[in-house]
Amino acid sequence: MTAYIVRRVLYTIPLVLGVCFFTFVLFDMVFSPRELAIQELGKHADEQQIADLMRSRGWDKGLFYNAEAGGLKSLTDTRFVNHMSKLLLFRFGRTAKTHEPIGRKIREGMVPSLTLTVPIFVLGLIIGICLSLMVAYFQATYLDLGAVVVCVAFMSISILVYILAGQWLLAQHLRLFPIYGYAGGIHAGRFLILPIAIAVIKGLGGDVRFYRTVLLEEVGRDYVRTARAKGLGERLILFKHVLKNAMIPVLTRTVLAIPFLFMGSLLLENFFGIPGLGNMTIEAVANGDTRVMAAMVYLGALLFAFGNLMTDISYTLVDPRVRLR
Amino acid sequence: MNGTDITEARSLWAEAWRRLKRKRLAMVCLGVVSFYVTLGVLDFIPVWHTVGTGEAAVRERGTLVDWIFRRAVGEVDKTESYAAPLEGRHLVGADIQGKDVLYKMIKGISTAIIIGGLTAAIYIPLGLLFGIVAGYFGGVVDDAIVYVYSTLACIPGILLLIALMSVMGKGIVQLCIAMGVTSWVGLCRLIRGETLKLRETDYVTAAQAVGASWPRVVFRHILPNLFHIVIISFTLGFSGIIMSEAVLSYIGIGVEPTTISWGTMISEAKMELSRDPSVWWQLTGAAGALFLLVLAFNVLGDALRDALDPRLKTQ
After folding, report:
1. ipTM of the assembly?
2. Contact call for A164 and B270, based on CB within 8 A
3. Residues forming a β-bridge with A101
4. Which residues, listed in sequence order, are joined to residue B63 by a DSSP beta bridge?
5. Under DSSP, is residue B49 helix (H, G, I), strand (E, B) or coil?
6. B270 CB near a chain A CB, below 8 Å?
């Protein structure tokens, strides 16, 4: 097991390096440094300002080879090495417009993001499993068929529509919730109920359908037939035998989602004015702030790799048949 | 079993079509998709028509849809800004400029077809090529391809799209390239896995044994057995592509705001809803058109998967 984990961690190293290199190609090689400097200073900057900024940022150096530095430094003091080492060591630099440290912004933005995504995740999981158990209990009836149709219909509605319609109906028309804004501490709840409700409802369609497929797959197995033959009640079989076994595929999907809770939600945060990481990303897009985007892409990849590892390990914990070597 | 019992051999496609035909819901969805495609195709037929009246009249090249709406609804009139549905000549109301919303909905179809088609034209050949090469040749080539797509798969989809779009800038073609780059990974994985399996089958071994060259094996024996995966992945992926367009256009990095698409319509609707009284028809129209097409593709995709390859269901 330990050997497996070590090997997996080692295997993620080239992937993470690959993602870093990808951000380098995208954000450093496509835009010329002059364009980046002009974007940051505005169109009316003079040549001296541009040259100064480029020197202070290290944008005047070569991409892969710095002829001026000489010696070994001509290979290490390049934009490529700078970009890679800064990202890998989590030194993200400052934002383009406001010159705030990106690392601090990310740490601060994580809290509002988590207050939004964790309740969505927990509520969505509980409600989804309860509903799918109900649907599985009534399998092969019209209720089951109707539920599947409703699920597919829910999946076919764009997230934008859920948000716009929910905001309009519940906040603007019925005035049940504030339309926009955020407050720290316990006051956050007032602002968060509506986006959480919208996201939970949005996710239900796909989740219930997935859980139902998993549950019904288990219902068809031999041990269920044996349990029925012993004379166990349908309800007992479903809740005690089937649910436990169906948890394995559900768990893998769930564990993979946990790391991404830190990333927040782009659209919800933007629509409801929650100052989390999703909102920060959208602001970065509007400002053309490539450093913030590179940092988010890098963090996203790290979290994904971590989630994958956790998924594999959680497999062995719930299913003793699975052995990692 | 005697000779008379042998039923007529059916190809995979004929068999799949037979199975699909039995599902009434899937056939209804096929009808819906065909209806959309027909409307979309009307918007690709160029027609010359006269814009304006009297002295100011100009001959302009538009599409058949433009022509039909000019004849049926008339010129765009700015005084009809936010005309409500069914009041006057606009069936689904008008937008801020007095443009007919139904017209914009139908224009949105051709935009959706272009985006879906172009994205598919980018990611399907990519996924097929790299999937087959990786699966068939194995070794270092396989390792390299798996490394590239694993790296891309590490980046959360929406972040990858945002990163690519902010570098390339707005526009339909850029959007399709970005979505092509994010979509080929899933297909490539499936194709690689299936090619690995097909490579070991008896008929491929037999073809290799009689000295068939690798292009012959690939094109004659492997590629035809992969098409069903392509079709399933396209049908199920289409909805995702159209929905991503809406989200990206809303964030401001999708198509140009001047392009009429369901995404730009929905983002215009954000401001309209907060007016008093609310202007809800542009949102309803665009969302309804999007919903029906996506729903039809989702149901049809599931039915196609069941008909062509039931094993894919667990993935």
Report:
1. 0.85
2. yes
3. A94
4. B46
5. strand
6. yes
